[in-house]
Design goal:
By secondary structure, this protein is of the alpha/beta class. It contains twelve helices and eight strands. It has an eight-stranded mixed sheet with strand order 1-2-4-3-5-6-7-8, with helices on both faces.
């Protein structure tokens, strides 16, 4: 019988070893009363902003998503939500338990207040934190956030194969990283087919705009990297999907902090009506639609406007 591992190139094992070493070197683990929580901070002083990454993700995903805010005097606290990287799932299965876990992390770090930034599935966690810890949150920003019942349904055969054969398989994720590095068009198009509802003509036009921007191509690589290796993020994603499929109303009416809801009108993963619903339920929330924007808003043509809107909101409400 042939050992399957013999068919996997040595480069894959080196890649995985180096990536895990890099991830561990870039973070710390706090021993809180709720259990170990992995985190990293970019910046040195208040005001603090805490990032809730999407799924799959980890503490490392917040930095490519929101790197611009640290250039404007804010400190970004990023943490690995339960089930991702070095934060065990036992720290918090439900989004309410995850909010409680974050509160203990803030106590551990002696951080009194934060603005909460939530992306995709992380947006649900940000909602719970803002709702149940109003004295801790001075602003809430939701981006491409899940705010209602959510169940992932592949829109076509290619998307289904992408998830079944690539995302859930570390060697295939390594191959995808290599392809993205040398053929970014292929990697980007496969991602956009899942993350957008654009028709073929619109998708190809958006694709060309991104490929002509070296900063966005580099950003694409960072996003793909923040989903790798999948084996260290699998438990968190599976729990997220289970929790999101059980949503029967979120405590948005409890939120007291000023809120900004940013969402692409052509988000093919989390439909735009999630944003409309959140804006209607959170008192005083402002809805900022991104025309033609898809799930990864940081790759959209409107990224400069998005950054300006987000930054102005944070600067306006910072304590």
């Amino acid at each position: 019988m042939t050992d399957k591992s013999q068919k996997i190139p040595f480069e894959y094992f080196q890649w995985k070893h180096d990536l895990i070493a890099e991830l561990r070197a870039g973070s710390q683990v706090a021993k809180t009363k709720n259990g170990p929580i992995e985190y990293a901070i970019k910046g040195q002083a208040e005001p603090f902003v805490v990032g809730f990454h999407g799924g799959p993700g980890g503490y490392d995903q917040a930095f490519p998503l929101w790197s611009d805010i640290t250039e404007k005097g804010f400190s970004l606290l990023s943490w690995s939500r339960p089930g991702y990287l070095r934060t065990p799932l036992s720290v918090g299965y439900t989004f309410k338990e995850q909010a409680d876990a974050l509160a203990t992390l803030l106590e551990y770090l002696d951080i009194q207040q934060v603005a909460a930034l939530g992306f995709s599935a992380g947006g649900t966690g940000a909602i719970f934190f803002a709702a149940y810890y109003p004295d801790r949150v001075w602003a809430l920003v939701l981006e491409s956030a899940v705010t209602q019942y959510y169940r992932f349904v592949p829109r076509d055969r290619l998307t289904e194969q992408f998830f079944a054969r690539i995302l859930f398989n570390d060697p295939a994720v390594w191959v995808y990283n290599q392809i993205a590095a040398h053929y970014p068009k292929f990697a980007l198009k496969s991602m956009m087919m899942k993350e957008s509802s654009l028709d073929n003509e619109e998708l190809n036009e958006a694709l060309q705009h991104i490929l002509q921007d070296p900063e966005k191509v580099s950003h694409l690589m960072e996003i793909i990297k923040s989903m790798s290796p999948f084996s260290l993020r699998k438990e968190g994603l599976e729990n997220d999907l289970s929790q999101l499929a059980a949503i029967d109303g979120l405590p948005m009416e409890k939120i007291q902090a000023p809120a900004l809801v940013i969402h692409g009108t052509d988000d093919g993963d989390v439909p735009f009506h999630h944003a409309e619903y959140a804006a209607s339920k959170i008192r005083g929330a402002e809805l900022f639609p991104v025309p033609g924007g898809f799930h990864i808003l940081s790759l959209s043509d409107n990224i400069l406007e998005i950054r300006e809107k987000r930054l102005n909101m944070l600067m306006k409400h910072q304590p």
